[in-house]
Amino acid sequence: MDALIIAAGYGSRLASISPSKPLTPVCDVPIIELSIRQAMLAGVSRVVVVTGHEAARLELFLADLSLRLGIAIVPVRLNDWSTPNGHSVIAGATRCDGNYLLMMADHLFDVEILARLITEAKDDCGLLLAIDRRIDSPLIDPEDATWVKIDDHGLIRDIGKTISPYDAVDCGAFLATPELAPAIRAAIASGKAGSLSEGVQVLAQYNRAATLDIEDAWWIDIDDPHYHALAEKTAMWHFAQALAVTGVVDADQR
Questions:
Q1: Is the Cβ–Cβ distance between 192 and 138 less than 8 Å?
Q2: Rounded to whole angstroms, how far apart are CA atoms 231 and 162?
Q3: Is residue 205 a part of any domain in this protein?
Q4: What is the pLDDT of residues 10-53, one digit of tens each?
Q5: Beta-carbon neighbour count of residue 101 at 10 Å?
Q6: Which of 8, 38, 157, 211 has the smallest CB count inside 10 Å?
Q7: What residues are paired with 169 via a beta bridge?
Q8: What pTM did the predictor assign?
């Protein structure tokens, strides 16, 4: 299965730490490398990365990483990286075969979340979104979170940063199908700006957007120095297996 990682944005709130959000180190390893290692452990065999801001630097790193990890990494450069993230999905989806694991480059996840998205995908839905019902978790930034309203069948009824009421937070990891990119295009055609959430909302209107409750699994959105510091404190415990695969850390360093 392919993974599609959205890594085109500027990341202005992390600029004081690093000029490139995907290359920002967490425990001395760039975020995007941690993401790709986790995706590999979950069963991904090829990675598509949509680049934009600092594209040349990121693409050079990805070329080297591909050789180090022995996995195909395909960069897709977005010329206008100031557009909403749904435009990145549209660009990257053209290079993915069938269903794909969709991840945000500034999010980190337990491999369990990614593996469950792949193995628990539903044939009758256009996407499966990982959600967290622990809406008061200190690892969640309420000022930047994307909230989700869910019905009794686990289907998305509403999604967005300003919706109310809501039941959970969007974790930024999906099992996407070829239905997602056309849904984003439909949102744009209706006058929307083209965010990923707007595409998800289109699928939700047709009962095609399902959810996966991550329960007690770990994840974090690294969107500013505070959450970067939290990631530095907690990530190594969750990434020891991925880093030990190719010798970045000792397998017993947990």
A1: no
A2: 25
A3: yes
A4: 888 888 899 999 999 999 999 999 999 999 999 999 999 999 99
A5: 24
A6: 157
A7: 132, 147
A8: 0.93
